[in-house]
Amino acid sequence: MDNLKNISLEQLESDVHQNSLEAKKELSQLQELETYRKNFVGNVSHELKTPIFSIQGYLLTLLEGGMYNEKILKQFLERAVANVERLQFIISDLETINKIESGVLNLELSKIELKSLVEDVFSDLKILAKEKRIKLEFKSGADMQIYVNANREGLIRVFSNLIMNSIKYGVENGSTKVAFYPMDDKVLVEVSDNGIGIEQQHLKHIFDRFYRVDSNRSRKEGGSGLGLSIVKHIVEMHKGKITVRSTPNQGSTFGFTLQKRGN
């Protein structure tokens, strides 16, 4: 009987200890979620305020007499429109992030030939690349036909974002190169540039929402600050993984894997 009491007491102590650990874990998770929520709301608020205050400033200047100067009128209206477009980018990307994380966005997969898809993205971005005198090209060996099982619109968004970033933060007369490396049942895709690069301390945060290596330059270049976070989500929805390696003043390489599909 004493043994049974001891066993019951030991079991009770063990259960209490286990419940205590689980409660602490749940509390820690709730605290992390609350911290994430506060940071997210704060970041969204900050990102929205910047273009809104800019638009307000331009319009107030015009109302205070600037509209009677044709040159100032045109210039400030163009700047206001640019900030409205930035607001649209932010809201659109926030909607995309929300759909992905809530599971509402489902990717329909189909057979995609990689090289032709990237050529379409190159074509869409050739004017932007020409302005920066940056050459868009494939690495040697990437002229092979490789088929993957993927969502076309999702892949276009991934390539567009990575290539656009390489142009924005590239150097004049530089280059952006796309490479394919077939593996067993996957293909490794790499997008490389010889631009300004990213310092080591920023790499682990590069896919975080609203994270900017250089806040002033990033906002000047436009965008929502959510692009790389969306890229990471889309790659992971394809059961892939995305990585980055970079050296300041030498360039960056973003690599991700996709599931191969037979010809």
Describe this structure in words.
It is a single chain. The protein has 263 residues and is of the alpha+beta class. The chain has two domains: 2-102, Helix Hairpins (Orthogonal Bundle), CATH 1.10.287.130; 110-259, Histidine kinase-like ATPase, C-terminal domain (Heat Shock Protein 90, 2-Layer Sandwich). 58% of the residues lie in helices and 16% in strands. The protein has a five-stranded mixed sheet with strand order 2-4-5-7-6. A two-stranded antiparallel sheet has the order 1-3. β6 and β7 (251-259) form a beta hairpin.
Total helix count?
Answer: 7
CATH class of the largest domain: Alpha Beta
**Which bin fits the share of residues in helices?**
55-70%
Class inferred from helices and paired strands: alpha+beta
Topology order in helix (H) and strand (E) letters: HHEHEEHEEHHHEE
Radius of gyration: 25 Å
E-strand count = 7
Spatial arrangement of strands, main beta sheet = 2-4-5-7-6
**Would you identify the CATH architecture of the largest domain?**
2-Layer Sandwich
CATH topology of the largest domain: Heat Shock Protein 90
Brief characterization of the structure:
The chain is an alpha+beta fold and 263 residues long. It contains 7 helices and 7 strands. It folds into 2 domains: 2-102, Helix Hairpins; 110-259, Heat Shock Protein 90, CATH 3.30.565.
What labels describe this entry?
2 domains; Heat Shock Protein 90; Helix Hairpins; 7 strands; 7 helices; 16% strand; globular; 263 residues
